[in-house]
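ZP: hey, is the magnesium ion complex queued? I don't see it on the tracker
AM: it wasn't, my bad. submitting now with these inputs:
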Amino acid sequence: MGYVPSADLVPKVLEGDLRAIARLVTRAESGVDEARAALDDVFRHAGRAHIVGITGVPGSGKSTLVTALTAAIRRTGRKVAIVAIDPSSPFSGGSILGDRIRMGEIAGDPGVFVRSMATRGALGGLARGALEAVDVLDAAGFDVVIIETVGVGQDEVEVARAAHTTVVVSAPGLGDDIQAIKAGILEVADVHAVSKCDRPDANRTIADLKNMLALSAGPGTRYGVRLASKAGAAPGNDAAWRPPVIATSSVRGEGIDDLLAAVDRHFASLRETGELDARRTHIAERRMLAAGEDILRARFARHRDGRVFTLLDAVRTRRLSPHAAALRLLDELQPGGSE
Ligand SMILES: Nc1nc2c(ncn2[C@@H]2O[C@H](COP(=O)(O)OP(=O)(O)O)[C@@H](O)[C@H]2O)c(=O)[nH]1
Ligand SMILES: [Mg+2]
């Protein structure tokens, strides 16, 4: 089968055609130039889905939890798409947890779309590709789009912050401390999940986490972290929302419905308080700035042999400061293409 132009995929994507969705997601992920206009088009049709980020250190049980959560959401009749950004993600159709939890439970269900993204280095970066893939899935009519990210690295954090609701997963057995603190992701939590609560040491993890949240909660701060929305700590949460701690066991299927209820409650709270708009504005700002950076990098790379080279030379020999050279570059590259 030949190459279907991206523009022709768009109407099919909007109808929910899984083949077209898969193709456009792939093109978003790899940053294909040909797909640019189609992705811009798709963006304008997106905005209905509830974007849920699931983040936590490797091995905390994210993928297993996402599978269980997806099955729970499906039982409410909603369609779910999953974008897993985790090189070690087992979303490959095999079994994750032996007999109890199988991808099979959700694999083959046309109301579920799963895509793992493990590759880096594509032009424009992982964050852009992943978020445009989310746009495609949103526009395609998935009610919930779940993004699984390892809570480390700039790209992952960028993606996690594009969610409406972020679930931070902590687990027993991964060391004495709450790992989310070390990873610096605790403050992005709208909901805390303590996974693997079938394990005897889970009670301690739950107690530690609750202590930490109680100790460090104070006016103007969350967990001792000042709420500076421009700095990116979960904007849109106000006094009306206190991130709950939900104990879950994917093995036993416990706490999954509670987790879904908390996630749904958070989205409802964002809507009712008007904070959803604040969060959307924040996401718009981050994505727009990131896109600007991508465009500049692309232009820089394209002009590397010409004008850029002359400017680099001027900076190397200290005739121009990096700042002055950058301003000139911006001036000169402005009339450029439409990337
Ligand atoms: N005991 C127990 N183990 C779990 C549970 N959920 C996941 N695991 C195990 O924890 C490990 C990591 O799970 P995975 O979902 O791949 O974690 P991820 O790296 O955060 O995506 C695997 O060996 C799972 O079988 C659970 O509810 N209970
Ligand atoms: Mg995983």
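AM: back. The first strand starts at residue 50 and ends at 56.
ZP: great, adding it to the tracker
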